C-alpha cells in the first residue's frame, strides 16, 4: 500500500505579479509580505475597510509571483476587491479556478518528499521543485501545486474524494469560509492570529484599525472551535445550539463541516463565544439529534 494519498482540492488561487506586487499586497493583507519567499508560506487575511474578512489564505511565492490559496468563495470575493484597487498600482491580478492542486496525506513524510524530489530545509515550509511547489502543513500533510505539464509521481494513490484531507484541515483548526460568511468575521474570530496570520508590527493595511482594536482593547468576544461527534449519516447545518440546564440556546455559526463515512464522524469548525466552556453540550440546530463536543485546538488562543 502506498504511504502517500493525493486528494484533488476544490480550491482556487489568486496570483499577483508586477512591479508593485509586494507593496500593493502589503497594504491589503494582514500579513507582513516581507516574510514571504519561495521557502516560506504564511497565513494571511484580506479584510474590508470595516475589518471583516473576504478570505483567509495560505500566502506563498512561486515563480516570482505571490499566490493566495483559499476556498472558491474566498478567492472570488478577494480577487474582485484586489482588482478594484489594483488599477492604481503596477500589478496583474488573476483568478485561477482550476489549478492542478492536490492535498497529500502521508505516514512517511521523508519518503513522500523523495517521491516528488522535494527538499525542505528544517526551518522552511515551502519548496519549489521540478513539478511545481509544495507547502508543508505538518509532518503528515502537504499541498502541492503542479505545473501545467507536470503529473503526480508513480506510486501515489489518487483518491476521488477529498473528505479525509478536509477533515484533517478541520482538526488542525485551519479556517475556510464559504459564501455565507464572506465579510462576516474579523480575523480573530476565526483564530487567524493564533496561526500566525496577522502581523501587529507592519504598517497600515485595509481594515487594520478594527483588527488592532480587537487585540488591544479586548473587543473580540468570539473564537473558532473544533467540534466533533459520532454520526450515522451526513448532515449539514449552519447553526449550533448549546444546552443551558433544560433549554437550548443559539451558540454560534458552523463555517465548514465534513462527514467521514469510514469512521462515522462529523467534524466542523464553528465560531462561538470565546468564553464557551470546553465541556459544553452542543447540537446542530436543524439536526438536533446530532450532538457534538468541543475538541482541543492544536494551538493557543492566548495573545503572544
TrEMBL record:
Residue ranges of every copy of the tRNA-modifying protein YgfZ-like beta-barrel domain listed in the record: 220-285
Alphabetical list of InterPro entries matching this protein: GcvT/YgfZ_C, YgfZ/GCV_T_CS, YgfZ/GcvT, YgfZ_barrel
GO biological processes: iron-sulfur cluster assembly
Classification via SUPFAM superfamilies: Aminomethyltransferase beta-barrel domain (SSF101790), Folate-binding domain (SSF103025)
Superkingdom to which the source organism belongs: Bacteria
PANTHER family: TRANSFERASE CAF17, MITOCHONDRIAL-RELATED (PTHR22602:SF0)
Identification of the protein by name: Transcriptional regulator
Amino acid at each position: 500500500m502506498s504511504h502517500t494519498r493525493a486528494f484533488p482540492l476544490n480550491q482556487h488561487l489568486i496570483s499577483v505579479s508586477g512591479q508593485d506586487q509586494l507593496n500593493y499586497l502589503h497594504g491589503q493583507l494582514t500579513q507582513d509580505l516581507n516574510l514571504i519567499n519561495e521557502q516560506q508560506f504564511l497565513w494571511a487575511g484580506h479584510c474590508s475597510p470595516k475589518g471583516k474578512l473576504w478570505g483567509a489564505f495560505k500566502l506563498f511565492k512561486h515563480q516570482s509571483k505571490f499566490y493566495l490559496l483559499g476556498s472558491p468563495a474566498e478567492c472570488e470575493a478577494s480577487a474582485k476587491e484586489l482588482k478594484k484597487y489594483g488599477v492604481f498600482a503596477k500589478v496583474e491580478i488573476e483568478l485561477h479556478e482550476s489549478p492542478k492542486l492536490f492535498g497529500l496525506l502521508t505516514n512517511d513524510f521523508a519518503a513522500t518528499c523523495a517521491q516528488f524530489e522535494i527538499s525542505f530545509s528544517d526551518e522552511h515550509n515551502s519548496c519549489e521543485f521540478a513539478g511545481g511547489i509544495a507547502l508543508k502543513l505538518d509532518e503528515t500533510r502537504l499541498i502541492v501545486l503542479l505545473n501545467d505539464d507536470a503529473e503526480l509521481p508513480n506510486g501515489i494513490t489518487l483518491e476521488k474524494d477529498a473528505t479525509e484531507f478536509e477533515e484533517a484541515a478541520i482538526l488542525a483548526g485551519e479556517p475556510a469560509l464559504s459564501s455565507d460568511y464572506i465579510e462576516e468575521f474579523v480575523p480573530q474570530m476565526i483564530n487567524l492570529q493564533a496561526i500566525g496570520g496577522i502581523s501587529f508590527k507592519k504598517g497600515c493595511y485595509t481594515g487594520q484599525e478594527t483588527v488592532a482594536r480587537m487585540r488591544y482593547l479586548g473587543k473580540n468576544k468570539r473564537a473558532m472551535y473544533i467540534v466533533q461527534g459520532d454520526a450515522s449519516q451526513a448532515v449539514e447545518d449552519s447553526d449550533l445550539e448549546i444546552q443551558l440546564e433544560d433549554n437550548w440556546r443559539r451558540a454560534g455559526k458552523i463555517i465548514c463541516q465534513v462527514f467521514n463515512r469510514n469512521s462515522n464522524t462529523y467534524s466542523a469548525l464553528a465560531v462561538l463565544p470565546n468564553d464557551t466552556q470546553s465541556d459544553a453540550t452542543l447540537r446542530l440546530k436543524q439536526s438536533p439529534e446530532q450532538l457534538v463536543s468541543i475538541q482541543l485546538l492544536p494551538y493557543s488562543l492566548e495573545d503572544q
